[in-house]
Design a protein that fits this description.
alpha+beta, 7 helices
Length: about 270
């Protein structure tokens, strides 16, 4: 179950990850002053100067109980690629410039902080507390169809995680009712996933196809071997609540960007 924390830096947490430093940000609690990025924008090149974005990153990291200097937050390209984070990657994309772009991270390095950015796409945080392995992915429709969540689980297992012990929390993102898609989307999904699976997350509303990315990622997680009670799916929609969240579909390109963070205790 997801719940909101109200302590100056509003954020959502999943009870499934209760003993792990983590959080899903809202658009509140930061220092951005641009009208369209107020106030917790964690993406560069959206109107804030770099120092403001870094300050927001630090504020949110401290709020979730992590060391921002041990964080990594790279460019995202709607891929299915997942990076293993070690100490040498600490600071990449925040304090150290990087040309690397991908959409997922795993680590078993104590103190590591993983961060993915979203503004309607699906953030998923993973943890196997027994093995000391965590993961985080940004899953847009391409990543969801390409099963980046499954890739993350496989990479976690390479680090010693066990599927039966992995817990996954699917954070706030756009809901099915808000996510009208085109026939090209449906055709690509049918081609890559098959009709049976597509029927589970695509439906027509008023003659237009709509996609449920939360449902798709839940199905991917189940097929990847996660137990039903080890998956937590938020009911919150970023597009339905534009005063709480930044939404690409609602705000268009004049918006800030949120994040999801998870860390291993040092």
């Amino acid at each position: 179950m997801f719940y909101r924390v109200n302590d100056g830096v509003p954020r959502y947490r999943s009870s499934l990850l209760e003993n792990i430093p983590h959080g899903f940000s809202t658009r509140h609690g930061g220092v951005s002053e641009c009208e369209h990025t107020k106030s917790m924008n964690v993406a560069f090149n959206r109107g804030d100067d770099d120092a403001t974005v870094i300050k927001n990153f630090e504020i949110f990291a401290h709020a979730v109980g992590a060391d921002p200097r041990r964080g990594v937050m790279l460019g995202q390209i709607h891929s299915c690629d997942v990076m293993t984070v070690t100490e040498k990657e600490f600071g990449l994309g925040v304090y150290k410039k990087s040309d690397i772009s991908l959409d997922g991270f795993v680590t078993n390095t104590p103190g590591a902080l993983l961060c993915v950015r979203v503004a309607d796409c699906v953030p998923i945080l993973f943890a196997d507390s027994k093995a000391g392995v965590i993961g985080a992915v940004h899953s847009g429709w391409r990543g969801s169809v390409g099963k980046i969540a499954e890739n993350c689980i496989e990479r976690m297992c390479e680090l010693g995680a066990v599927r039966e012990n992995i817990r996954a929390s699917v954070g706030p993102c756009i809901c099915k009712n808000c996510y009208e898609v085109g026939e090209d989307f449906v055709a690509e999904c049918e081609n890559r996933l098959g009709h049976r699976l597509c029927a589970e997350f695509i439906e027509e509303q008023n003659g237009k196809p709509h996609a449920d990315l939360k449902r798709l990622n839940y199905l991917v997680l189940r097929e990847a071997g996660l137990a039903e009670n080890n998956i937590d799916v938020s009911t919150l929609c970023t597009c339905c609540d534009p005063d709480e969240f930044f939404s690409h579909r609602y705000h268009k390109d004049k918006r800030g960007t949120m994040c999801a963070m998870i860390a291993l205790e040092a």
